[in-house]
Amino acid sequence: MASALASTEINPLCPVYAPFFGAMGTTAAIVFTCLGASYGTAKSGVGISAMGVLRPDLLIKCIVPVVMAGIIAIYGLVVSVLISGDIKSPMTLYAGFIQLGAGLSVGLSGLAAGFAIGVVGDAGVRGTAQQPRLFIGMILILIFAEVLGLYGLIVALILNTRSQDAPSVSTGGGTGVIRETPHTHLSLSSRLPSAVLNRAFSPIWYGYVARAESFA
């Protein structure tokens, strides 16, 4: 067993904790979008309830903010399903970081859109009860608030497709240890630009490189 472990190579670009970032991207996508959707639904629902006392005939017509707030959670659900389908072990840090960025993109964008929809929906339905001509203006404002979450969805989908560009890896010796297929003869420091290595945190970075090359 000792000889088998000694013959294996560990790729520092594919650590065992790499899938953690993909899982966090999945969590961020669904959690933040649901937070935005819940705030938008609750805030708009309070305004609709107050408006329904004065103008019950406009109750169904003013339900639009609640519907638009719920759509934001669908954005996060779609991205979460796509990211979770690509999580595997082993995987590269590149793919993990890309998936984390995709989840944060749609999650935080959905959170901001939900806040905007909640505030606009609450004030809009109250104003519509007193002046019905405000309804068209409220819808336009809600559309511009909704597209904030759509922007995050588009960026997240683009990032998720880029995660497929991660360098190919293979397991060696049947032990499940990652081995880098391209450029295995090069050291880690030789594949990094000199501008990165000359940063102010170069002592910390060189320590990390030294530890990584000891496993390569």
Order of helices and strands: HHHHHEEHH
Total count of strands: 2
Helix content: 55-70%
User: Taking strands numbered 1, 2, ... along the chain, how are they ordered across the largest sheet?
Assistant: 1-2
Largest sheet: 2 strands, antiparallel
CATH topology of the largest domain: Four Helix Bundle (Hemerythrin (Met), subunit A)
Which structural class do the helices and strands define? mainly alpha
CATH class of the largest domain: Mainly Alpha
C-alpha geometry = elongated
Question: Between the first and last Cα atoms, what is the distance in angstroms?
Answer: 19 Å
Strand content: under 5%
The overall number of domains is 2
CATH superfamily annotation of the largest domain: lithium bound rotor ring of v- atpase
